[in-house]
Amino acid sequence: GEKVEQHESTLSVREGDSAVINCTYTDTASSYFPWYKQEAGKGLHFVIDIRSNVDRKQSQRLIVLLDKKAKRFSLHITATQPEDSAIYFCAASMRYNVLYFGSGTKLTVEP
Amino acid sequence: GPKVLQIPSHQIIDMGQMVTLNCDPVSNHLYFYWYKQILGQQMEFLVNFYNGKVMEKSKLFKDQFSVERPDGSYFTLKIQPTALEDSAVYFCASSPRLGGVAETLYFGSGTRLTVL
Q: How sure is the predictor about B39, in pLDDT bands with cuts at 50, 70 and 90?
C-alpha cells in the first residue's frame, strides 16, 4: 500500500521567516494530497490540499508544491506567526478518501 | 468551520469489555470514517461508511470492530471484546461527498482509549 514519509519531525523557525515541510509518497496512483494542522489537545484541522492535475496551489500564506515525477510534495508557510505553531500532517489518497498520513512535523515559531 | 464532535474524549476500560466510541459528524455530511493513532505513530485508516454500509476497511479493522449510524444519530465504533493493542486515539471524520475526486475530511478531536 501507499506509504507517506514526512521528513522533518521537528522544525523551528523565527517569526516572519518561512517554514517548509516535505513529504514523499510511494504510489503513483495517489492523486490527492491534503495537509492538516493539529494544535495541542485538538483534532486535525484542514489547512490546504492539492490535486495531481496541478503542481502549485496557494492560499494566503500557504503554498503547496507537488512534484509527481519525484513523488514529493511540500508545504510552505510564509511570514510565519506564533499561531502557526502546531503539528502538521501531510497525507496522500488515491481513492475513497482513504488517507495515508505522514508521521507529523512539530513546527515551532519563535517570537 | 464545520465541526465533528467526539464523545467521550477519554475512555478507560478493562481488557475484554466492550466499548462504544461516539461521533457526531457534520450535519449534512454523508460519508464517515474512523482513523486510529497509536501514541507516537502515524494515523491509520480503519474504515469508511456510507448509506448504512462499510465501503472499505483496512486490515486494522478487526472482526471485533463494528460501525453503525442508526437513524441518523451518532456514528459509532464498537469494539467487542477490547484488547490491549486497541489502546490508541481514535479519530472520527466526515465528508460531504465521495466519488472519483476525494473530498475534504473534517476530523473530530479524537477519543483516547486506554485498555487496561
A: confident
Report the pLDDT averaged over residues B59-83.
94
B32 interfacial to chain A (CB closer than 8 Å):
no
Taking an 8 Å cut-off on Cβ atoms, the answer to whether A32 and B101 are in contact is yes
Residue A70, CA distances (Å) to A66, A67, A100, B101 in order:
9, 6, 18, 22
What does the alpha-carbon distance between residue B1 and residue B21 come to, in Å, rounded to a whole number? Answer: 23
How do residues A4-15 score in pLDDT, each as one tens digit? 999 999 999 999
Residue A42, all three cell numbers: 485538538
Q: Name the grid cell of A18.
A: 518561512
Q: Is B31 on the interface with A (CB under 8 A)?
A: yes
| Of the partner residues A44, A49, A100, the one whose CB lies closest to the CB of residue B91 | A44
Q: Determine the length of chain A.
A: 111
Of B27, B29, B39, B54, the C-alpha closest to B87 is B39
